[in-house]
Design a protein that fits this description.
The protein is of the alpha+beta class. It contains five helices and five strands. It comes from Qipengyuania aquimaris.
């Protein structure tokens, strides 16, 4: 199945996720079934525009993500005791409960896209802006002060 978001849907998602624009968003999904759950395996591709975390200038970039979702009927999510330790399997991580006979695949894809957006992504002019402002990069900074001196001593010992 191929799903492509139209202009209005992309604009609504951009507002929801706090970015400037989503120029394209589409997904290819294949379905299967296991233990009464609907499995959705797919890939999403999008072209996003957002402000640079350093310069605040808008820039555009592409994202591509694969996903595996497991849609389970209401009341069939795994049961976990509140204070008990348990280990999540890969199937548990993207398990989505639904009511009735339908589920919202579009919303699930939107949530996958949200996870792919880096709110601190830097645009192509970020390094130049740091240099112009006299801000050293993380690699150029040398820690100083009493804590840095104490750490140096610990490393020697």
């Amino acid at each position: 199945m191929t799903i492509e978001a139209d202009e209005a849907e992309r604009a609504a998602l951009a507002r929801r996720f706090g970015i400037t624009a989503i120029h394209s968003l589409n997904s290819e999904v294949e379905f299967g079934e296991k233990d009464g759950a609907v499995l959705a395996e797919g890939k999403l591709a999008a072209t996003l525009e957002q402000p640079c975390a350093v310069t605040r200038e808008d820039f555009t970039y592409k994202v591509s993500e694969t996903f595996s979702l497991r849609f389970v009927p209401e009341g069939q999510l795994g049961e976990y005791e509140e204070d008990a330790e348990f280990e999540l399997t890969e199937e548990d991580l993207d398990e989505i409960e639904y009511e009735g006979e339908t589920f919202d695949l579009g919303e699930a894809i939107a949530q996958e896209l949200a996870l792919a957006i880096d709110p601190y992504r830097e645009g192509p002019n970020a390094d130049d802006a740091r240099t112009e402002a006299g801000i050293a990069s993380d690699e150029e900074r040398t820690p100083s002060g009493p804590l840095a001196e104490a750490l140096k001593e610990l490393r020697k010992g």
